[in-house]
Amino acid sequence: MPGQKQFKFINGLNFIPALGMIKSDTTSQKLNLSEQYILLYLIEHVNCPVTKDDLLKAGWPDRVVSEASLFQAIRSLRVKIQEKTKGEIIETLPRVGYQITQVSIEKYSGLSTSTARMTTAPFLPYFSIALLTVIVLLVGGYLWLTGYKYPDETHYVTRTTMLQNSTVTLISINEEGIVDLQTKLDELRQLYVQLDNTTDLTNIKLYAYKGADSYSIAWCRIDENKQCLPETDFSYQISIDGWVTFTKEVLKELPLSRPYPIIQTDLAREPTSQVYLNFLDNSGIDSQVVYHYITRDEENTFNFSYLNFISEEQTGYHHALSISSATLTVVENESPFISKIELKPIMYHWAYQANEFITERLSTALTIENKLKEQFLSKSVSYNYLLYQQPYIDLVLNDHVGIFWVHNSDKDAKIFNYKRQAVR
How many CB atoms lie within 10 A of CB 372? Predict the structure, then answer.
């Protein structure tokens, strides 16, 4: 890319805006969009103090986020720029904001692929994401045009109740499941309120789902407009016999906030979505991250590529679990939910490799993934249901996975259509 600029810091590292990357002669680090916007804004105002409000507007245009998102982005930038001491490059100005004082502009003439290697954060897979994406491009082009299997329609039962200023929505495939969920949540609340110094359970939006062989819980804290506050959304997938473990974890420490979702990959393109799932079992798997790459054709059908990772509870390292692709189409919605989309599998590639840190037979994540694998390989159609939506975030139910939050890079991802459409 001749003619492009790069900015060189005092430690020798370069920021290349055209690539959204921090690099040296031997390493490179991908920045997410917010990190790119923030760093470029600081560079454009070199030697000038920049307020936190300015950086919040620069990093998240047309979106309101808390200062915690900015702090997380600055921390991440310090790591990727490889500051030896805090403030070496990005200086903190107490009660003001931040500034960069030393940076030079150079011409960017390209990076030799023979000398460059990718240095990733610990949560990226141990083998090449690029190789997996090639598989998507090669195999994903071969569409299965016949032989899809359509499941019997699932009839869901729902119940919504108010608990002070909190809304609780229960979902199951039968009334017995609703009663089971209500009983378990009532018992959990009674135990929780008996503890000392606990967090107030008001102003929460909570959804609970019981499927054939698992529970799923999702919640967020809400503002005065009943919308989810940034970084307060959580979802947990729980095996049928794992409720006791879930109860112990919630009673021990109820999570209140989490870092702004970040997926680092050179292959990221807009629009994208990320899903974060938490698991509570004794398998050694702590969480799962699903990265979506989205395209849309002329008939308004969405084509998805999924990059799926699991993290080790002991080390925090992430491993590639699978890569797959599917088409998503809005269909007639007779469910009690906002909208419904049909998911038709195109391809699936199993990438997980056994290791000493994970006990596979105890893993809820691998159990769910095996079901998805069977669904894709047997060309079985499945459905996603929209339970809740606000700018940048959807709450979705899939009967194989459960309930999960989808974080969208677009304010309105337009994946779900509220209009009840006839099946094409």
Answer: 21
The whole-angstrom separation of Cα 33 and Cα 138 is 28
Contact 315, 122 (CB under 8 A): yes
| Contact status, residue 261 vs residue 277, Cβ threshold 8 Å | no
Query: Which structure tokens are listed for 216?
Result: 């799923």
Judge whether 301 and 343 are in contact, CB under 8 Å: no
Q: Is 247 exposed, middle or buried (0-12, 13-18, 19+ CB in 10 A)?
A: middle
Q: Does this model's pTM top 0.70?
A: no
Helix and strand counts by DSSP (H, E) for the chain:
7, 21
Instruction: Find the DSSP H helices in 60-202.
Output: 67-81, 129-139, 175-193
E-assigned strand segments in 88-224: 90-93, 97-100, 103-108, 157-163, 166-172, 204-210, 214-221
User: Within its chain, how far is the Cα of 364 from the centroid?
Assistant: 18
Q: Which residues of 73-110 are buried (b: 16+ CB within 10 A; e: fewer)?
A: bbebbbebbbbeeeeebbeeeeeebbbbeebeeeebee
Q: Which range in 101-110, 122-131, 235-244, 375-384 is most confidently predicted, on average pLDDT?
A: 375-384
Nearest-angstrom CA–CA distance, 165 and 341: 31
The count of other CB atoms within 10 Å of the CB of residue 316 is 12
Residue 320: strand pairing partners: 309
Query: Which residue has tokens 């982005």?
Result: 73
3 state SS of 133: helix
Reduced to 3 states, what is the DSSP secondary structure of residue 233? coil
Residue found by looking up tokens 């909570």 in the block? 206
Buried b (16+ CB within 10 A) or exposed e, 7-27: bebeeebbbbbebbbbbeeee
Tell me if residue 231 falls in helix, strand or coil: coil
Compute the distance between CA of residue 91 and CA of residue 96 in angstroms, rounded to an integer.
11
Tens digit of each residue's pLDDT (9 = 90 or more) over 306-357: 888 888 877 777 788 898 888 888 888 888 999 898 899 988 988 888 877 8
Q: How far is it between the farthest Cα atoms of the chain?
A: 67
Rounded to whole angstroms, the Cα distance separating 237 from 243 reads 10
Report pLDDT digits (tens) over 151-208: 888 889 999 988 777 899 999 999 999 999 999 998 988 888 787 766 677 888 999 9
